[in-house]
């Protein structure tokens, strides 16, 4: 729902902005039915709210009616006993009205909070089903807005907009009934007066709104100049290019405009209050004039001074309900636009779904096969074009190739983060689209290039892979990942908080923790997506030492950047432009003079030499090319 800076005082929401008009939803019976479906489970509580609003409206008007009797019977009639009784009754009724109002607010808030509780849960569960494509094509801020402020706006719709409509209608009806009981002539006059008095008020409010928006735009320009020119980098640029005078003149011009708009807005506000005060005084004067004419000129004994006072009081009570109801379309349209935004997300069908007859094998061996797989992120722009290869259970494959060749896309298809467009991926001879999603993903471990850690303790991040793991299992997994000694040296050890996205840890430490998490999961299929990319040589060595024994006996796919693990892979697949252009061992590929040879000459040779040196330095035999 569009949100704007509201100008202070009344009248800030009395018309639709251009953005509101552009986002005006199409009101259909289906949309209204869908909105009310969220209210249906709480219809009993909603009935209580409506009843309490009606009762509260009646009770709140009753003391006004008693005021007429206080004037006529108590003051003019000079009956002190009646005066005391009527004032006491008014006091009791006022307390009762307030208590009913408290009950109405509680029940109304209860309904609103439970509805947004349901919507938040439904939206979160729905978003959890979305494919990776959804999160890469939609802005994260927009997704978070749907989950937070948009759903929270529903609370405002239910707690305020809906209640205001019912409450103002009830107040207006009760006031009109009471007025017509006193004098149909004065009541009719009031009905004619009130709408005419709201028109100038609305126009004054619109003027203030326009000025406030202009002032806000001007303020935004000032803030931009301050942020750019008073920052360390900005000040340096200004000085180096000797633009101090030009920047000062720019600031001075906008500052003068801001001053002019602020004065204009302040005066518009003063005129607005003057107009409002004048118009709201005209109604009572006309009622007094008409009432006086009836009593004095026509000598109507049925109308008393107390009755006229009651009519004036009720008239002033009608201003706000009439103002709200005349302009309720603004709130209704904004509310419907908010629901439309939410329903827009709810209507997005999950791209990756669990089949209704999903297969859950007793276990997974890990035989992996790509059969003529074709895939594209955007229609007509192929990323993979006929990828075919097989990895027997327990064997390893290294994927190499230039950046953008499609290596990461290949591995993202295995746990069904995306689905193939044509062809098939099979595990143990079963198309992965027929496997139960939970079963499939629980049997695949992935260590990504950008390690994500939750803002929690090291232990909590490890337990994400296996919630029932013992402390001994955690420590064993960390030893295999070459991270236990580091964790044990920390003051908080495994209870140490890693910070937002693991910022308290270095890249190598986060990567090794990610490997420990994969070890703890103990899956038959392991995927490493450039796990040693962008790390220093020490961190790379520690991670490399953790990866190599981990891949033994598991089906492993390794995307190599520095390719220290290429020599240990059972087979190397060279990917270029979404096609496997070469395959074989290092010894076979390096002599062919193809893509792999070029990669070897430009990127791999140094990494391989470092790999050999590390092996020799630890007393191990050098790994010989196959």
Report on this structure.
The protein is α/β, with parallel strands linked by helices. The protein has three domains: 28-181 and 328-351, Up-down Bundle (ABC transporter transmembrane region fold), CATH 1.20.1560.10; 184-302, ABC transporter transmembrane region fold; 354-443 and 555-619, P-loop containing nucleotide triphosphate hydrolases (Rossmann fold). The protein contains 20 helices and ten strands. The protein has helices at residues 18-22, 29-37, 43-76, 80-128, 132-137, 140-182, 184-229, 232-240, 244-297, 305-326, 328-346, 407-413, 437-442, 458-463, 471-480, 484-489, 507-521, 537-551, 586-590, 595-617; strands at residues 368-378, 381-391, 396-400, 422-427, 430-431, 444-447, 525-529, 555-559, 571-576, 579-584. Strands 6-7-8-3-9-10 form a six-stranded mixed β-sheet, sandwiched between helices. A hairpin with a 2-residue loop joins strand 9 and strand 10 (579-584). Helix 3 (43-76) packs parallel to helix 6 (140-182) and helix 3 packs antiparallel against helix 10. The two termini are 63 Å apart. Mean pLDDT is 79; it is low at 1-14 and 618-626.
Q: Radius of gyration, Cα only, in angstroms?
A: 37 Å
The total number of structural domains is 3
Shape by Cα distribution: elongated
User: What is the terminal separation in angstroms?
Assistant: 63 Å
Give the count of helical stretches. Answer: 20
Strand content: 5-15%
Low-confidence stretches: 1-14, 618-626
Helices and strands, in order, run as: HHHHHHHHHHHEEEHEEHEHHHHEHEEEHH
Strand line-up across the major sheet: 6-7-8-3-9-10
Do you know the CATH architecture of the largest domain?
Answer: Up-down Bundle
- What level of helicity do the residues show? 55-70%
Q: Main beta sheet, described?
A: 6 strands, mixed
Give me the count of strands: 10
């Amino acid at each position: 729902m569009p949100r704007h800076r509201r100008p202070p005082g009344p009248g800030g929401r009395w018309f639709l902005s251009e953005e509101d008009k552009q986002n005006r939803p199409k009101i259909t019976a289906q949309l209204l039915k869908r909105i009310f479906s969220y209210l249906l489970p709480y219809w009993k509580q909603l009935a209580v709210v409506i009843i309490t609003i009606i009762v509260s409206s009646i009770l709140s008007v009753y003391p006004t009616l008693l005021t007429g009797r206080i004037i006529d019977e108590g003051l003019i009639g000079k009956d002190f006993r009646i005066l005391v009784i009527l004032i006491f009754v008014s006091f009791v009724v006022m307390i009762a009205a307030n208590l009913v109002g408290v009950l109405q607010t509680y029940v109304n808030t209860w309904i609103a909070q439970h509805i947004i509780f349901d919507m938040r849960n439904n939206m979160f569960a729905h978003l959890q089903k979305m494919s990776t494509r959804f999160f890469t094509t939609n802005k994260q801020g927009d997704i978070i807005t749907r989950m937070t402020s948009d759903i929270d706006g529903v609370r405002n719709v239910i707690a305020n907009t809906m209640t205001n409509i019912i409450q103002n209608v009830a107040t207006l009806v009760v006031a009109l009934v009471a007025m017509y009981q006193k004098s149909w002539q004065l009541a009719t006059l009031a009905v004619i007066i009130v709408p005419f008095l709201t028109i100038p008020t609305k126009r004054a409010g619109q003027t203030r709104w326009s000025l406030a928006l202009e002032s806000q735009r001007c303020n935004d320009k000032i803030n931009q100049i301050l942020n750019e020119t008073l920052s360390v980098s900005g000040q340096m640029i200004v000085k180096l290019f000797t633009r101090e005078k030009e920047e000062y003149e720019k600031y001075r011009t906008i500052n003068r405009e801001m001053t002019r708009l602020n004065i204009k807005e302040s005066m518009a506000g003063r005129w607005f209050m003057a107009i409002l005060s004048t118009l709201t005084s005209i109604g009572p004067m006309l009622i007094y004039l008409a009432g006086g004419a009836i009593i004095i000129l026509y000598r109507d004994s049925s109308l008393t001074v107390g009755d006229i006072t009651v009519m004036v009081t009720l008239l002033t009570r009608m201003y706000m309900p009439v103002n709200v109801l005349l302009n309720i379309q603004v709130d209704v349209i904004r509310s419907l636009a908010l629901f439309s935004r939410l329903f827009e997300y709810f209507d997005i069908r999950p791209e990756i779904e669990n089949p209704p007859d999903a297969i859950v094998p007793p276990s997974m061996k890990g035989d992996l096969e790509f059969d003529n797989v074709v895939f594209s992120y955007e229609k007509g722009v192929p990323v993979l074009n006929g990828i075919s290869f097989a990895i027997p259970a327990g064997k390893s494959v290294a994927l190499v190739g230039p950046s953008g060749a499609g290596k990461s896309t290949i591995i993202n298809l295995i746990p069904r983060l995306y689905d193939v467009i044509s062809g098939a991926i099979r595990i143990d001879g079963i198309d992965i689209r027929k496997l139960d999603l939970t079963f499939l993903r629980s049997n695949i471990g992935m260590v990504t290039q950008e390690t994500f850690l939750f803002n929690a303790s090291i232990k909590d991040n490890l337990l994400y892979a296996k919630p029932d793991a013992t402390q001994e299992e955690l420590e064993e997994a960390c030893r295999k990942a070459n991270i236990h000694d580091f964790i044990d040296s920390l003051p908080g050890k495994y209870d140490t908080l890693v910070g937002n996205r693991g910022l308290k840890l270095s890249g190598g430490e986060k990567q090794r923790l990610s490997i420990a998490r994969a070890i703890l999961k103990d899956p038959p299929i392991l995927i490493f997506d450039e796990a040693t990319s962008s790390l220093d040589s020490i961190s790379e060595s520690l991670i490399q030492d953790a990866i190599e024994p981990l891949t033994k006996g598991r089906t492993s796919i390794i995307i190599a950047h520095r390719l220290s693990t290429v020599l240990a892979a059972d087979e190397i697949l060279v990917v270029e432009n979404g096609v496997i252009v070469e395959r074989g061992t290092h010894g076979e590929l390096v002599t062919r003079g193809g893509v792999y040879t070029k990669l070897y000459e430009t990127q791999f040779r140094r990494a391989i030499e470092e790999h050999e040196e590390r092996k020799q330095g630890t007393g191990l035999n050098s790994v010989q090319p196959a």
